[in-house]
Design brief:
With 483 residues, the chain is α/β, with parallel strands linked by helices. The chain folds into four domains: 3-88, no CATH class; 95-214, NAD(P)-binding Rossmann-like Domain (Rossmann fold), CATH 3.40.50.720; 220-376 and 463-482, Rossmann fold (3-Layer(aba) Sandwich); 386-451, RNA polymerase II/Efflux pump adaptor protein, barrel-sandwich hybrid domain (OB fold (Dihydrolipoamide Acetyltransferase, E2P)), CATH 2.40.50.100. Helices cover 24% and strands 27% of the residues. The protein is built from eleven helices and 27 strands. It has helices spanning 3-12, 51-67, 103-114, 128-133, 153-157, 193-208, 231-242, 267-270, 286-294, 309-312, 463-482; strands at residues 17-26, 35-39, 44-47, 71-77, 81-88, 95-99, 118-122, 140-144, 163-166, 180-181, 223-227, 246-251, 272-275, 278-283, 298-302, 316-319, 336-340, 352-354, 365-366, 389-391, 396-400, 407-408, 413-417, 420-423, 428-433, 439-440, 445-450. Helix 3 packs across helix 6 (193-208) and helix 7 (231-242) packs across helix 11 (463-482).
Length: 483
């Protein structure tokens, strides 16, 4: 078969190829003119002289096909001969490799063929070798149409394909790569296989042409990671959750919150915790986080060092530890970083600080400067300040004899630390009490009594937490709407 006929056939089959032409010679060479067509698999039609020259030219041609770039090369023949060749790589058509011939895979293949794409379909359960044997270049999209074939993602990413899409729930734990899209497709409210195919093909075209689209994988554009899951953090999490944000809470291995009836940190011990109708669940990995978000729940993970940050890539990070000092939160850990209370400098350590001190400025947003310094004295409730918060009289294991919600009188024994009694300091309702079994040092915060007694509510988010949460939500909304 001649070179022109071979090129025509390859073009009809939509297969990539290169045309190699002799453009100059010097000294003794096999031929002074000639042309050959080389396919990606190495099939040769026509000739430029055979032998070592032709073999080396064929290798250069295959490299040019893979890269999509041709060019001129000079090859030595024997002791005194030189052959200059030019390799031309005709602009290849778009192509797609679809793994999985189910309803969605078939619909995607049909749509792509309809717009002139070269399409190869591999059956479900295809091997890595079968995938890598397909013709894949920088104009190829790979679509893995099922979670069962997700193990092929690393192989797909090892190819020059510009797009690798996986039709699977985002709860699947998988590596991150800018070419990897999952869940696959644009968010158009699709349901049927045909509608899903439209969203997938639209995404592929958008990626190829570098157009901004609302990808399903952009789910984390409204994701907030909150450090801490105590009562103030929980108020913030609930406000963000109810405003439509996906929220993840990161806690220490053994949380020491005292307002346990309104703290998602309790999920670490109990497996789950519901506050004001919002359910939090304890999870252990990225898959658990994403499955919880899909169910509309708040995942709580033991991760004080935020090792999950790189995988989640949240739009916002909120430091709600309320440690009165910075325990490692920095600007740049997320596009927008917010911190609650003193210990942070807005515009330096973080992007914004929320005032946490009771009073006229409670919940206000600070974009430059710091919150009011910690005085060590709790804010007043019904005229009572320091007396309402109780601390451990010694070090040892904490054991309760009363429950959150109980009405107590001053002098009542409510707990023990080791052998030391812990007595109520005022009359009122126990709204905070440390969990039994925790080891505490002397002076550790262990209980909170609300002097309003029967009128106190220990089952819902406090007024203080609501004010702080409002400030966080306003700051987050402002940042994201400006972006």
């Amino acid at each position: 078969m001649g070179s022109f006929e071979a090129a025509s056939e390859l073009e009809k089959e939509n297969l990539p190829f290169a045309v190699v032409t002799i453009t100059g010679t010097e000294g003794t060479v096999p031929r002074t003119s000639g042309r050959m067509v080389v396919s990606l698999e190495g099939r040769v039609s026509g000739t430029i002289g055979g032998g070592e020259i032709e073999y080396r030219a064929s290798q250069l041609a295959k490299e040019a096909i893979a890269s999509g770039r041709g060019g001129s090369h000079t090859l030595q023949h024997g002791a005194g001969g030189w052959v200059t060749i030019f390799i031309d790589v005709p602009v290849a058509s778009h192509s797609a490799v679809i793994i999985g011939s189910g309803h969605v895979g078939a619909a995607v293949a049909s749509l792509l063929k309809g717009i002139g794409w070269r399409t190869a379909v591999l059956e479900r359960g295809a091997s890595r070798e079968e995938l890598l044997a397909a013709v894949i270049d920088s104009r190829t999209a790979i679509i893995i149409a099922g979670k069962a074939d997700a193990s092929l993602v690393p192989a797909a990413l090892s190819t020059p394909a510009f797009y690798v899409g996986l039709l699977a729930s985002r709860s699947l734990s998988i590596e991150s790569d800018p070419r990897l899209y999952f869940p696959i497709g644009l968010d158009i409210g699709e349901e049927t296989p045909e509608e899903i195919a439209v969203s997938v093909v639209a995404e592929i075209l958008g990626v190829f042409h570098s157009r901004g689209c609302a990808h399903h994988r952009a789910w984390n554009s409204r994701l907030v990671l909150v450090r801490g899951a105590g009562d103030l953090a929980t108020g913030t999490i609930i406000r963000l959750h109810n405003a439509g944000y996906s929220v993840v809470a990161a806690e220490i291995e053994k949380p020491t919150v005292i307002r346990r009836t309104v703290s998602f940190a309790e999920a670490v011990y109990e497996g789950e915790m519901t506050v004001e109708g919002v359910k939090a669940v304890h999870v252990s990995d990225m898959g658990g986080i994403l499955r919880a978000i899909d169910r509309g729940e708040v995942p709580v993970i033991n991760d004080p060092s935020l090792s999950i940050l790189g995988k989640l890539r949240p739009a916002v990070l909120v430091d709600a530890i309320i440690a009165k000092r910075n325990l490692g939160t920095k600007r740049g850990m997320a596009p927008f970083v917010v911190a609650l209370g003193p210990g942070f400098r807005a515009g330096v350590d973080v992007d914004a600080v929320i005032e946490t001190k009771r009073g006229h400025t409670l919940g206000s947003i600070i974009y430059s400067g710091s919150a009011i310094e910690n005085t060590g004295i709790p804010g007043e409730i019904a005229g009572v300040a320091a007396e309402r918060v109780m601390h451990s009289p010694s070090s040892g294991e904490f054991r309760t004899v009363r429950s959150i919600g109980d009405i107590v009188q001053k002098g009542d024994v409510i707990a023990y630390v080791g052998e030391s009694e812990v007595k109520a300091t005022i009359d009122g309702r126990l709204r905070g009490l440390l969990r039994t079994g925790l080891e505490v040092p002397e002076g550790f915060k262990i209980a909170d009594i609300d002097p309003r007694g029967e009128n106190a509510d220990h089952t819902t988010v406090s007024d203080k937490a609501r004010a702080i949460a409002g400030g966080v939500l306003e700051a987050v909304d402002r940042f994201l709407s400006a972006g």
